[in-house]
């Protein structure tokens, strides 16, 4: 297990339990306790946890957005299944908005066989995947590129959606909660998401099970604005029930 995977494991265990010991992490990652201590030192320098005697406790807030590379390594197989299922909701010749994020990027990789699609996106990563296929028309919003994320933000990105009328927006999310609705970590991305929502008739949210029941910093929209949620089959019935009670069609991959 490389350093990135080990540190991801540390953060996942902290998110689940709130605190963790060096010995527990050493057993889980199958590396020495000295290696784990170095990982914890690095994560503390990044303000992702607080080291305590014998382990660490979480200090991640609702405003913390894990780096793209870290998120991309989480639940890859589940995200691929979500993307594959979401692609079945797309009809030929439809006009789509494809949001930024790792799960929507998985959808982009399953759209390459479609024909006649117009895809509008503020994601340079998604545009790169889709633009090499002649059967697809890709419109990039413009705007300021966020380092690391390669999402496009700012007035140009937001105004682009004001000129367009699309069939479906596929949204990523930092959290999906029955009371808080769809939430996101970054305020700039949130404003672009809201603009995208205003220019689409149907809203499909893509979120793996780890996002359900979670609340991030900024509100994107209430659940009443969501038509379909596509998640993975590790989501518990107890978590899914209040989402369905809100009127959202929930599909599990």
Descriptive overview:
It is a single chain. This protein is an alpha/beta fold and 253 residues long. Helix content is 38%, strand content 23%. The chain is built from ten helices and 15 strands. The strands form four sheets. The chain has a seven-stranded parallel sheet, sandwiched between helices. It has a three-stranded antiparallel sheet with strand order 1-3-2. The protein has a three-stranded antiparallel sheet with strand order 10-11-13, with helices on one face. Strand 5, helix 7 (124-130) and strand 6 form a beta-alpha-beta unit. Helix 5 packs across helix 6 (102-109) and helix 6 (102-109) runs parallel beside helix 7 (124-130).
- Helices, by number, come to 10
Query: How far apart are the first and last residues' alpha carbons, in Å?
Result: 27 Å
Beta-strand content: 15-25%
Radius of gyration: 19 Å
Supply the helix-strand structural class: alpha/beta
Q: Name the helicity range.
A: 25-40%
Number of strands: 15
Give me the strand/helix succession: HEHHEEHHEHEHEEEHEEEHEEEHE
Mean pLDDT: 90
Largest sheet: spatial strand order: 6-5-4-9-12-14-15
Query: Per the principal axes of the C-alpha atoms, what is the gross shape?
Result: globular
Main sheet record: 7 strands, parallel
Low-pLDDT segments: none
List keywords for this structure.
alpha/beta, 253 residues, single chain, seven-stranded parallel sheet
Please outline what is shown here.
Helices cover 38% and strands 23% of the residues. It has ten helices and 15 strands. The protein has helices at residues 3-17, 22-29, 33-45, 68-72, 76-87, 102-109, 124-130, 155-162, 187-198, 237-245, and strands spanning 19-21, 49-52, 55-58, 95-98, 118-121, 137-140, 144-145, 152-153, 166-171, 175-177, 181-184, 200-206, 218-221, 228-231, 249-252.
């Amino acid at each position: 297990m490389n350093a990135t995977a080990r540190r991801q494991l540390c953060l996942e265990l902290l998110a689940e339990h709130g605190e963790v010991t060096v010995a527990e992490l050493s057993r889980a990652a199958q590396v020495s306790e000295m290696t784990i201590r170095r990982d914890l030192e690095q994560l503390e320098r990044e303000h992702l946890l607080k080291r305590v005697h014998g382990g660490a406790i979480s200090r991640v807030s609702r405003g913390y957005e894990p780096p793209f590379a870290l998120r991309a390594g989480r639940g890859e197989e589940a995200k691929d299944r979500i993307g594959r299922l979401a692609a079945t909701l797309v009809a030929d010749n439809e006009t789509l908005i494809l949001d930024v994020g790792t799960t929507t990027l998985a959808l982009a990789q399953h759209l390459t066989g479609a024909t006649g699609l117009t895809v509008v996106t503020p994601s340079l990563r998604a545009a790169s995947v889709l633009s090499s296929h002649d059967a697809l028309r890709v419109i990039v919003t413009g705007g300021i590129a966020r380092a690391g994320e390669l999402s496009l933000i700012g007035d140009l990105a937001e105004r682009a959606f004001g000129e367009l009328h699309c069939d479906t927006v596929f949204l990523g999310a930092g959290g999906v909660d029955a009371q808080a609705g769809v939430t996101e970590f970054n305020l700039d991305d949130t404003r672009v998401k809201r603009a995208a929502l205003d220019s689409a008739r149907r809203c499909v949210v893509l979120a793996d099970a780890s996002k359900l029941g979670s609340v991030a910093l900024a509100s994107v929209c209430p659940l009443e604005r969501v038509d379909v949620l596509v998640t993975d089959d590790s989501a518990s019935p107890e978590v899914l029930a209040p989402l369905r009670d809100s009127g959202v069609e929930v599909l599990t991959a």
